[in-house]
Amino acid sequence: MKPQPSGKVPILDPLQFDDYLFQNWKPEVSGFYERFHIARIESYKNHLKIPLPPHRRSVCFFIFLTRGMAIRSKGLTQYEIRKNHFFFLPANQITSLEFFSEETQGFYCHFQPEILNQTYIKADPGAEFPFFRLLGNPLVEVKETDNVLSLLNILNKEYQKNIDDHFDLIPVYLTALLMEARKYVTPQKKQSKNAASYITQRYLNALSEFVYEYKTVAEFADHLSVSSNHLHKCVKTTTGKSAHYLLGEMRILEAKVLLKQTSLSVGEIAFKVGKFSASDFCRFFKSRTQMTPLQYRNIEI
Candidates 2.60.120.280, 3.40.190.10, 3.30.160.100, 3.40.50.2000; correct CATH number of 14-182? Predict the structure, then answer.
């Protein structure tokens, strides 16, 4: 994939993502591909580059597994996805794919959020569906799968028709599917019952959203309206790691995206992710990954 110009935070559109995801292979797609796409996982899983490095994409997406297991990340958190589970991700959220089991089957779908804002539908994914929010749990277990599978198969059938006049049906069926999934969302526990976990999750999501704006834990603590000491205690209690360590991990994640998807120099990336000098950044990157930034950039994916 051709790197994006220097200075831009890289976000892959669907066509760019194909180059990033597949090994010398292109999926069969319809004319709707940039706006909406759905496919059976088993039709492309053998062509995947796994593990897939961290990246951002311009579309919302989800997978639903009918068999097997996969491991995906949302920000710094990894999720194990099993049979009858959805994994949802909003647009512009950093993610990676770590694993697909050989027997994995199911559906993959991506779509532009704007397609849900049509004549007959006015829906904002993040507002209407908690699994598309930064603070939302991306995993949803479906207890009764008949309706979900029926809607997924209808969407797949309509997509395969590739008829422009029929596209207005796709957002209707997609909204029905998301509403069906919403029925199985487990309500979040009240903040007072697990304050440390709640603050830690907010911190993890703030790291993903504001890593370029805030450079210190104290700045993130101010953003979350808590003291630095309280943030440190919550994060340590919940994860066993320090808030400083997780900030470093987020910087490494962002640096990996920039190294793979832009033509920024190592010095420019060092400044962008933490106002490091190039030499300090190289030492920091190697201490966390056991390779230099240039070695990581030159790995074939």
Answer: 2.60.120.280
